[in-house]
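REVIEWER CHECKLIST
Item 1: Sequence provided? yes
Item 2: Single chain? yes
Item 3: Sequence as submitted:
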Amino acid sequence: MVVEPKQARFESLSLDSGATLSPVDVAYETYGELNRNKTNAVLILHAFSGDAHAAGIGHDGKPGWWDNMIGPGKAFDTDRYFVICSNVLGGCRGTTGPSSINPATGCPYAMTFPVITIGDIVRLQKMLIDSLGIERLLCVCGGSMGGMQALQWAVSYPDAVASAIPIATTARHSAQQIAFNEVGRQAIMADPDWNGGNYYGRKPPGRGLAVARMVGHITYMSDDSMREKFGRRLRHREQYGFDFEVDFEVESYLRYRGSQFVDRFDANSYLYITKAMDYFDLVNGHGSLAAALEKTKARFLVISFTSDWLYPSYQSLEIVNALRSRNRDVAYCELASNYGHDAFLVDVAEQAEVIRGFLARVARENV
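Item 4: Structure as written out by the authors:
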């Protein structure tokens, strides 16, 4: 079934930086039906390079990025739940971002777009949920950057969240995580075609963005998965070429992923969204993670993966321990997988069962 994208517009949005955006558009999709009491709504929060198309078939014929988890009989059963997914603020897939037209100038915002935070992203999502007449979400769930948003939802709007499922995520970036993002940003800004962010209507900084994606993609995989998928196999060669063309399968794969990304993502959005992730810090202003999570009222299910070295399990355990120290309702699952950080997207069988059972319990008490 082809899913119809939706659009909402809001007059203005106040940002953590002190700036105000006006107006603000939000692209979103919904799956399933909202019940009469509006108590069965689940908000799915996408990761860095995702968008609002989480499930079903889009107009381009492609399935949603979490189609293996959302739909009739799946973990997020659309026969039972009303599932919503919106593109994040700062994005380039229908929600206002640096590639959007600034009504004050008639030109794309480019680098005049204000720097945003995960808090800003969630604040806009709350406006969308309010506009749908939903006072309390049955669940907020997301992996990676989506998990950050789920945590922010639970902290910022405790009365509006019955449960939260942060997956393969963290309460704040480590120095290593910030470092990888900075390498990507510098790759983009070093591309002569970036032109200070003013490349709209011109040749985009494709080389820099492709390199940024290549670096990022390495962090999403594990050593085991790369060895299994590529090893040291050569690409269309019997022996080394003794040049700087593609020798290895893994080189070809990364170049393909980089070039594919350039066709669907805006380089300036890459800068803004990675910066928002780096700024994210639940501890900020609270003194401790436990203090930050103290006012939450949601039931939590925290999931991590054994081979995820980008967002390792110790960061999920920090969240779990902070919640337990404040006697909050939290379950924790570390799932075995060789797929690294990407496991929450591709290795979903066990994840789906854990989430299905958790949601069913939450629904019995709240729907």
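Item 5: Key structural point noted by reviewer: The domain at 6-173+280-366 is CATH 3.40.50.1820 (Rossmann fold).
Item 6: Recommendation: ____
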